From TrEMBL:
GO molecular function: lipid binding
NCBIfam families: DegV
Keyword Cytoplasm included in the entry's annotation: no
Record Pfam families: DegV
Name under which the protein is recorded: Fatty acid-binding protein DegV
Listed InterPro entries: DegV, DegV_C, DegV_domain_contain
Keywords: Lipid-binding
Length: 286
């Protein structure tokens, strides 16, 4: 609290995939989701790193599961910030993909002053959610109000683009996203679905192609159709595939898109899309 006014503290969760330097620079608080192997739960990013998670997933015959933070954990995080004299602005993983935002809403109603906690549903995932949290943190540092931040995030969310390619259909099959017949034909034909997240936070198919080269060309076509806002950060995400991310970054730089950052996607998201997935996270001009 400064001069009798409450300052805003930005809170997000581990699926936002913000780098440690971003979190430190803006004082962002992150709440971990859980990843579960053989009935044992690990706090994402705390009790298990991304590298450790993907090693275990590659070795496991059973797909790991995930779960959202409990309302009690959300309450405790929010209350600690309130007790320190700041208000809370929480940017959560898409409610269409997880119950995390609902846990946050329940947790907010359990604190001493719920009116000082704002819950924002990013309708996004991974660094898409992270970019919105980062923008909120920049605005909070500049002294903007929760209402002003929400208006800005609404504009960015309307223009936000997330497009990705999966290297294997195995995780989608195991998680029930496709059936066994589709998996069989897709694998035999080396089909790679190119997926995107729409403005309602729902995963949609943008295209389907055969082979890595065609997948890259299709993702670049998506970018050409939805030109990025040049002044905003452009995220390149990968699931245990740093070489592919670097290659994609190089191609983007050749196209004049240089304000890029490479991030590794958290296990909570990676469990569903699989090792080798690459994706782009950015705000389009319109």
């Amino acid at each position: 609290m400064e001069g009798g006014l409450f300052m805003l503290r930005i809170v997000t969760d581990s699926t936002s995939d913000l780098t440690s330097s971003m979190i430190a620079e803006f004082g962002i608080d992150t709440v971990p989701l859980n990843v579960i192997f053989d009935g044992k739960a690990y706090a994402d990013g705390i009790e298990i790193s991304k590298e450790e998670f993907y090693i275990k997933m590659a070795e496991s015959k059973v797909l790991p599961t995930t779960s959202q933070p409990s309302p009690a954990l959300m309450r405790d995080r929010f209350q600690k910030i309130l007790d320190a004299g700041d208000d809370v602005y929480y940017v959560g993983l898409a409610s269409t993909l997880s119950g995390t935002v609902q846990s946050a809403r329940i947790g907010r109603d359990m604190v001493t002053d719920p009116n000082r906690v704002t819950i924002y549903d990013s309708l996004n995932a991974s660094f898409g959610q992270g970019l919105l949290a980062l923008e909120a943190a920049k605005m909070a540092r500049d002294g903007r109000t929760a209402e002003e931040i929400t208006l800005r995030l609404q504009d960015l969310r309307r223009r936000f683009k997330l497009v990705f390619s999966v290297a294997t259909l195995e995780n989608l099959r195991k998680s029930g996203r496709i059936n066994n017949l589709a998996f069989l034909f897709g694998s035999l034909l080396s089909i790679k679905p190119i997926l995107m997240l729409d403005t309602a936070g729902v995963v949609q198919q943008y295209d389907k192609v055969r082979g890595k080269k065609n997948a890259l060309a299709t993702i670049l076509r998506f970018v050409e159709e939805h030109q990025p806002e040049p002044e905003l950060l452009f995220g390149i995400g990968h699931v245990a595939a740093p070489e592919q991310a670097v290659e994609l970054q190089g191609v983007l730089h050749e196209l004049g898109i240089t304000n890029t950052v490479i991030i590794e996607i958290s296990g909570v998201i990676g469990a569903h899309v699989g090792i080798g997935t690459t994706g782009l996270f950015y705000v389009a001009r319109s």
